[in-house]
Design brief:
The chain has five helices and two strands, in the order ααββααα. It is mostly helical. It has a two-stranded antiparallel ribbon with strand order 1-2. β1 and β2 form a beta hairpin.
Length: 144
């Protein structure tokens, strides 16, 4: 089906490949949201990620790292998140404390995308967590 589109009052999709007809029967216009989230105060916290961290800490395989810090790994752990509680934000960092880890992560991405090459460049974008890795000893080890 070349260039097939749905009627104007539906969500419009264009395909340049062959699509089985049963797919079109499942696409319909929705006036209500796709997910029916629970009210914020009724949502329950999910412990899957914390359970994974506990499993890695207690039973994980020790591995070497380039940062010279001990680490453990666990391969093949699968998590499923019910979206009625909202989109899962998987982290153990405090995302609202100042300086915000979230803002620092965004600042780090912006710095990299803008070609930051020095610790001072990173700080100018608002990302200061690289300081402990940018030492004279670690730079010399890598020939920097």
């Amino acid at each position: 089906m070349q260039g097939a589109t749905l009627p104007r009052d539906s969500c419009r999709l264009n395909f340049d490949i062959s699509v089985p007809m049963f797919v079109w029967a499942n696409i319909e216009r929705r006036d209500e949201p796709m997910f029916q989230y629970k009210p914020f105060l009724e949502r329950t916290s999910d412990t899957q990620y914390r359970d994974l961290l506990t499993r890695i800490r207690d039973h994980g395989e020790e591995v070497d790292t380039q940062q010279e810090h001990p680490a453990k790994k666990w391969i093949g752990y699968l998590m499923h998140f019910p979206l009625v509680n909202g989109f899962p934000l998987i982290t153990e960092r405090d995302l609202v404390a100042e300086p915000s880890q979230f803002k620092s992560a965004i600042a780090e991405l912006c710095a990299f995308l803008n070609g930051a090459q020095t610790l001072n460049d990173m700080r100018n974008f608002g990302c200061g967590w690289w300081a402990r890795w940018v030492t004279a000893e670690k730079c010399a080890k890598r020939g920097l």
